[in-house]
Amino acid sequence: MGIEALLFDVQGTATDFHSTVLGALRTASAGRHPGVDWVEFVDRWRARYFDVLREAKVGKNDWTTVHSVYADALDRLLADYGVADFDDAEREDLACAWQRIVPWPDVVPGLTRLKTRYTLATLSNADVAAVVNISKLGGLPWDAVFTAEMAGAFKPDPAAYRMAATYLGLAPGQIMMVACHKYDIRAAGALGFRTAFVARPLEFGVGGAVDVEYEDEFDVNAGDFLDLADQLGC
Amino acid sequence: MGIEALLFDVQGTATDFHSTVLGALRTASAGRHPGVDWVEFVDRWRARYFDVLREAKVGKNDWTTVHSVYADALDRLLADYGVADFDDAEREDLACAWQRIVPWPDVVPGLTRLKTRYTLATLSNADVAAVVNISKLGGLPWDAVFTAEMAGAFKPDPAAYRMAATYLGLAPGQIMMVACHKYDIRAAGALGFRTAFVARPLEFGVGGAVDVEYEDEFDVNAGDFLDLADQLGC
């Protein structure tokens, strides 16, 4: 297909935020809030992040960090659930759980194989610092980190994808966007990027509602990063 | 010193452009131009790059790639030296030699040790694509690639250093700028960054004029990246 580089979504596609953030909440609660459904809490926390990004009318000069979005949403959700006994330091540490999310088990071996043949970069809506922290903790071997913050626009805004192509010095057709979220790869595909869908059935935990159907519209449909490496000849 | 991250200059500090570019020119010439002093040619090529950057009044919307600066300068220099028998493909390949420059021998082992303790990123005036290509070829284990292109301003413009601090989510005092060029670390130091000077006596080849004097004004003076790792406790 003439592909030179792969761009990867991070939260959900490369990493398992659900178990990491759920674990952090349960550890912080330590059983003190038996009436709280922490699984639902994580789902609502993540949903709030999507709501803010969808509404975001931002530019490079008034950028809102995703960390602050998660921190604000946490305060609101804790109030909604009637949890008042987390102090500021505990809240900050919980918001930082999104910077400690761990890779899915197939990710490091899959990326290691893909890296032998392709340039690998992130294209994430998370903050640069968050992607750097996640990648360093998890040993993710990116050749470059690109994020929405560098474009002044969140995915699926075309500016985010175009920024990555400009920085790589490649045409969209030489780049494949890899994500478990179809809106993300559809937006890239509409700009001429190649597309790879990776199913992540556990993105929202066991029994969570997630779209894992393969679609003919994508160039590749893969079960995980090892399957992606197989299909891309690595 | 409370340092969390190290920023590295690439061309000269981490990599030996002189031998790579000189080798590419000599290979392309294949002895056909006995009157040309290719060592002097490389020095003038590099000097032209500095002249253009110094004069550059650029913003994010009218960015000049460094690749085009090198390509334009090559055409002028070949004309100056009366070399007319390089075709367009050969000229393009020569300009791309700046994206194939190899790391100094101490760089990969030094970075590998430093990476165990610090976040490592580039802060280069070269294009993102060039730094990605150089890093991939040389196996340079950066946690992130930052370049002037991302700031819309070349070092020593304060905007370049501040961009890196913003993206890392760190204060200048938590970041050390590492370079063999004193103007670069002095500019960072004036903004509150920590500074490390690394001597590169062969930057312009054997006998080339280069300032390798240690200075008390820098937080660290090092002979190479292994010495830097020693001094930073890695």
From TrEMBL, chains A, B:
A single MF term (Gene Ontology): hydrolase activity, acting on acid halide bonds, in C-halide compounds
Pfam families: Hydrolase
Keyword vocabulary terms for this entry: Hydrolase
Superkingdom: Bacteria
InterPro entries: 2-HAD (IPR006328), HAD-like_sf (IPR036412), HAD-SF_hydro_IA (IPR006439), HAD_sf (IPR023214), PGP-like_dom2 (IPR023198), S-2-haloacid_dehalogenase (IPR051540)
PANTHER family in the record: HALOACID DEHALOGENASE, TYPE II (AFU_ORTHOLOGUE AFUA_2G07750)-RELATED, HYDROLASE, HALOACID DELAHOGENASE-RELATED
Family statement drawn from the similarity comment of this UniProt entry: Belongs to the HAD-like hydrolase superfamily. S-2-haloalkanoic acid dehalogenase family.
Name of this protein: 2-haloacid dehalogenase
